[in-house]
Amino acid sequence: MRTANLGGRLVLVRGGRALDVATASGGRYGPDPQAVFDDWAGFHAWARSADLGAAEPYEPEELGPPVPRPGQVFAIGVNYREHADESGYGADSSPVVFTKFRSCLTGPVAEVALRGDRCDWEVELVVVVGRPAVAVAARDAWSYVAGVTVGQDVSDRELQLGGERPQFSLGKSWPGFGPTGPVLVTPDELADPDDLALGCTLRGEVLQSSRTSRMIYGVPRLVEYLSGHCALAPVT
């Protein structure tokens, strides 16, 4: 299943066409992309049998963030071995965790106003928790995941690293500094959810290319770690 936020309304997406969920479900599920997490399991079951014959073409520019108001946003720093070595980070016993405030989120097609003279960006895997998770074991982690999408972590490095002590969250949370999308893809559509390709190109030039299997802490380990310290939830 692939869902998206089309002009603020929840849609199912297939082959460049979108089906409005509120209309197709006869009001069983409303138009708000965020509200569906109140019954994600039921929605997933309904969507598997939904008739996409009425799906219509859409413009990518109309897409918003697939999850516009997440209850929490956790980000993991220097989680690829190449990046850790490049940044001078040694092997660590725990992930580097920070946040991006949800007010920075935008859709996949957006103009991002850069701040400061040292803006940077990194392509990221975005993992969406679909139901409350507390003290989840790594072996069960994927069963708590509603889906994955792609994002860019845009950073104002001057603000982030300019003081005596680095601070992450403000320098990463200017409006537009969290592009995400275009769609949320459920794990059952992925051949191997622990080995996904991520990349970024600019005017045809490949600037980033890696796989999630190269992460120091994979998704199951991160869900276990984070849910062992606080309750994870898709909505608050």
* CATH level 3 topology of the largest domain: Fumarylacetoacetate hydrolase, domain 2
Which homologous superfamily in CATH is the superfamily of the largest domain?
Fumarylacetoacetase-like, C-terminal domain
| Discrete helix count | 5
Work out the count of structural domains: 2
Residue runs with pLDDT of under 50 for 5 or more positions = none
The share of residues in helices is 10-25%
Protein structure class: alpha+beta
Beta strands, count: 13
Using only C-alpha atoms, the radius of gyration works out to: 18 Å
- Net shape: globular
How far apart the termini lie comes to 24 Å
Beta-strand percentage range: 25-35%
- What is the correct CATH architecture of the largest domain? Alpha-Beta Complex
Element order, helices and strands?
A: EEEHHEEEHEEEEHEEEH
CATH top level assignment of the largest domain: Alpha Beta
Largest sheet: 9 strands, mixed
Residue-averaged pLDDT: 93
Structure commentary:
With 236 residues, the protein is α+β, with helices and mostly antiparallel strands. It has two domains: 2-64, no CATH class; 75-227, Fumarylacetoacetase-like, C-terminal domain (Fumarylacetoacetate hydrolase, domain 2), CATH 3.90.850. The protein has five helices and 13 strands. The protein has helices at 21-24, 40-48, 81-87, 157-161, 219-227, and strands at 2-6, 9-14, 17-20, 56-57, 63-64, 75-77, 96-98, 105-106, 119-129, 145-156, 178-185, 197-202, 205-211. The strands form three sheets. Strands 1, 2, 3, 4, 5, 8, 9, 10 and 11 form a nine-stranded mixed sheet that branches. A two-stranded antiparallel ribbon has the order 6-7. Strands 12-13 form a two-stranded antiparallel sheet. A hairpin with a 2-residue loop joins strand 1 and strand 2 (9-14). The chain is globular and about 55 Å long. Residues 73-234 form the Fumarylacetoacetase-like C-terminal domain. This is Fumarylacetoacetate hydrolase. It comes from Phytohabitans suffuscus.
